[in-house]
Amino acid sequence: TAGGVGEQSALWVELKQAFAVVEQDFARFDTNNNQVVDFDEITQAMPVNRVGNDRIDIMNRLEFSFNQVDLDRSRSLDFFEFMYLSFMMTQNGSYHDLVAESTGSALVKRAFINIHSFYRKYDEDGNLRLSWPELDKFCQLQFGCMPGALPQNFEKVRYQSRSSSEWVVDVVRFMKLLYMTIC
Question: What is the pTM of this model?
Answer without folding.
Answer: 0.89
